[in-house]
Amino acid sequence: MFDLKNLISLNKKLVFGSMFLFVVAAIAIILTSPKHDQFDYARREVLLRRLGHEILLQSGDSTSTVLPIKKIASDEYQISFENAFSFQPDFLINIATKTLSKDPISADYVVNVLKRGNTNAIYGFAIAGNQKNNIISCNGRNQPSELYVINVKFKPKGIISKKGAYLLGGLPFLAFIGLVFFRSAVSRKGPAKLQDDAIITLGGAFFDVRNRKLLISGSEVYLTATETRLLSIFTSSPNLVIERNRLQKEIWEDEGVIVGRSLDMFISKLRKKLEPDPKINITVVRGKGYKLEVNA
């Protein structure tokens, strides 16, 4: 029979089930997420040094050095050089796209060339992984020899990958399915749905749901279908007030039938059948409903 313990058990199962779904989704997100670890960032800095090296070679400088790469923001780096050099924008675009296409974290970035000590960019371009959003300007204008620095800003990547986002976005759907399952379980096991094999102890009596009878004071007392349903609802919440509306709804309205017969009449008949056991009684709570009082 569905009682308070069963309800608590179902609630626990729902909570643990939801937690399990969340953990599974979180693990899946982690497994499908990009590996933003120290190795990838170290590899990015090597690629940036490689870019600086290729720029110097193209300008005819094979002896000066590329200074240490500076990380000036979360996803922004600066390449500095020992000596001045000149560059051709076309070459800078080609070598940058060729080199930085190997970046393990982001395929989208913006490159700006500045004079050392100056915050104004003299040349720049933006590369997008899908190419259609590339922004290229001033390709044919050669730039004179200067002490340049090159800033490369990568598009930040979220922790959650596309697959992970799908999984996370599916959590509300999973929660909805869990709620439907829970409501269905409650509906199946609710007071109005009897378990045919249930035998419930009431004080010194026994309520045999399947056979619709009471074993009370050494005698067998048979119940009607309506009386059985009424007593089933009462035994689901002993010593608690049950509202009249709930009784009417679960006995008749849930079956699609609304009758005009008095609920009090059925309560009175059931009360008389319980009279042989002084430990159990159905009392009226005025303005609210009824209560099955069961004494140990």
Question: What's the short version?
Answer:
The protein is α+β, with helices and mostly antiparallel strands and 296 residues long. Helix content is 41%, strand content 23%. Strands 1-2-7-4-5 form a 5-stranded antiparallel sheet, with helices on one face. A 4-stranded antiparallel sheet has the order 8-9-10-11, with no helix packed on it.
Notes on the structure:
This protein has helices spanning 4-32, 38-58, 89-100, 162-169, 171-189, 225-236, 244-251, 263-274; strands at residues 70-73, 76-80, 85-87, 109-115, 121-127, 143-146, 148-154, 199-202, 205-208, 213-216, 219-222, 241-243, 280-285, 289-294. It contains eight helices and 14 strands. The protein has 296 residues and is an alpha+beta fold. The model is unreliable at 1-5 and 185-194 (pLDDT under 50). The protein starts with a helix and ends with a strand. Helices cover 41% and strands 23% of the residues.
- Along the chain, the helix and strand elements come as HHEEEHEEEEHHEEEEHEHHEE
Mean pLDDT: 78
Ends: how far apart? 19 Å
User: What portion of residues belong to β-strands?
Assistant: 15-25%
Q: Tally the helices: what do you get? A: 8
Q: Which structural class matches the secondary elements?
A: alpha+beta
Low-confidence sequence ranges: 1-5, 185-194
Number of strands: 14
What is the approximate shape? rod-shaped
